[in-house]
Amino acid sequence: AQRVTQPEKLLSVFKGAPVELKCNYSYSGSPELFWYVQYSRQRLQLLLRHISRESIKGFTADLNKGETSFHLKKPFAQEEDSAMYYCALGVRIQGAQKLVFGQGTRLTINP
Amino acid sequence: DTGVSQDPRHKITKRGQNVTFRCDPISEHNRLYWYRQTLGQGPEFLTYFQNEAQLEKSRLLSDRFSAERPKGSFSTLEIQRTEQGDSAMYLCASSLWTSGGTDTQYFGPGTRLTVL
């Protein structure tokens, strides 16, 4: 089965505090994981993908195949990080890739 | 705006009516995807086109749903005999596949369908 689980629907932290959004996946194939973000009144956009191993807006995520996790982390949260965050698993289809999304975590950064 | 566009942004219809949505991908993107998102859930894959060929359809796509991408440019998603359960946000995404490329999916703003 292909599944992505984000256990927290809501997460609230204070500005300057560390943030960790959890994501676990289930997939028998070779996983490719993504984090997408949706700011208020904006469209869904890619934040980062595990194969890039890059840091975007201070966020990082490490793929842990042993724990089947891809948690998103930021050491110091900023108010502009408030948004809806979706973890997604890329699943191979007919030479392309469909995205299987988790239900999302709404992150609120309090001043 | 050179991003993915969708039309209309909102559609309210009565149960049993047919509706059609349009998606214009980013210019020259050869792949186009449709997803559906219901309240409180993440997007769910519906179907995918490589140029004009529809190569994959989800089991979520009942026979009341049909999608086309004539000439490999814009795409339409039609829902016949709408039901209240069809109420959702319909998202379109496009990507450019090239050998060795990343094939990142770029999403449109979505069409919100409400079936009364």
List its salient traits.
heterodimer, A: 111 residues, mainly beta, 3-stranded antiparallel β-sheet, 49% strand, globular, B: 116 residues, 7-stranded mixed β-sheet, 11 strands
Put the structure in a nutshell.
With 111 residues, chain A is mostly beta strands. Helix content of chain A is 0%, strand content 49%.
Structural write-up:
- The complex is a heterodimer of chains A (111) and B (116).
- Helices cover 0% and strands 49% of the residues of chain A.
- Chain A has no helices and 11 strands.
- The model of chain A has no long low-confidence stretch (mean pLDDT 94).
- Helix content of chain B is 0%, strand content 48%.
- The termini of chain B are far apart.
- The model of chain B has no long low-confidence stretch (mean pLDDT 94).
- Chain A binds chain B through residues 4, 9, 36, 43-46, 49, 52, 86, 88, 93-104, and chain B through 3-4, 31, 33, 35, 40-45, 48, 50, 55-56, 91, 97, 102-110.
User: Percentage of helical residues of chain A?
Assistant: under 10%
- First and last CA, distance of chain A: 40 Å
What is the structural class of chain A?
Answer: mainly beta
Q: What shape does the CA trace of chain B take? A: globular
Strand residue content of chain A: over 45%
Radius of gyration of chain B: 14 Å
What topology does this entry show?
The complex is a heterodimer of chains A (111) and B (116).
Chain A: E1 3-5, E2 10-14, E3 19-21, E4 24-26, E5 32-38, E6 45-49, E7 60-61, E8 72-74, E9 83-93, E10 96-101, E11 105-110
Parallel strand pairs in A: 2-11
Antiparallel strand pairs in A: 1-4, 3-8, 5-6, 5-9, 7-8, 9-10, 9-11
Chain B: E1 5-7, E2 10-13, E3 19-24, E4 31-37, E5 44-50, E6 53-57, E7 65-68, E8 75-79, E9 88-95, E10 106-107, E11 111-115
Parallel strand pairs in B: 2-11
Antiparallel strand pairs in B: 1-3, 3-8, 4-5, 4-9, 5-6, 7-8, 9-10, 9-11
